[in-house]
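seq as requested:
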Amino acid sequence: MSISVKTIEANLSAVRSRIASACASRQRNVEDVTLVAVTKTVDVDAIKTLIELGVCDIGESRVAQMLERRREIETWLGGSEFKGQPVRWHLIGHLQRNKVKIAIEAADVIHSVDSLRLADEINGVCEKLRRVARVLMQVNCSNEVQKFGVAVGATVHLGELITTFPNIELMGLMTMAAFSDNPEDARPTFVRLRELFEEMRSEKIATGSFGHLSMGMSQDYPVAIEEGATMIRVGSALFE
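struct tokens:
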């Protein structure tokens, strides 16, 4: 999908304004919330426009498309930075074990680790490549059968196991709320993820860089910010 620069500029301004308002309502710093632009439905020119407007965190759902786009953008930039700021690529879609090697090459952060088998595969690939994968654990806080993510009751235990892998850095938790026209319907989902996050931190299950809550999309990101999101994944609000 092609979209004009003016449309992206106007939409981005509106999103940034809503981020600022949500942060102000909880006395949070705007700098503590990373806007991940979900670009899976737009063309590469839209990604270039976003980067030129200062949005350097790009989210994609499919690993092959992410790798192709990353290479194209890095060719355009002549590297992996824009004016000294790193352009970071976030894999936000479900990851199959047979695509882990591509994912490690394509993504700076993987948001969707939801099983021990997947974590084990990531660790093994990274060991061979002598790399460390930065990941978030996806939790199904909305309890929807069609959604991926570890069950709420198994989250802490899986977190403990993931932190034993030497080639994985567990950075935080991710969830998706059930779609609703009323953003307030998402609040219990976000509250539950924050509670799990705080439990894991209090029990020192994950330390160091474990500090992120990836939650909130176009329809509910202000509520997610109010409940502690440090990363929001916004697509349609930027491009429609």
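The mean pLDDT is 96.
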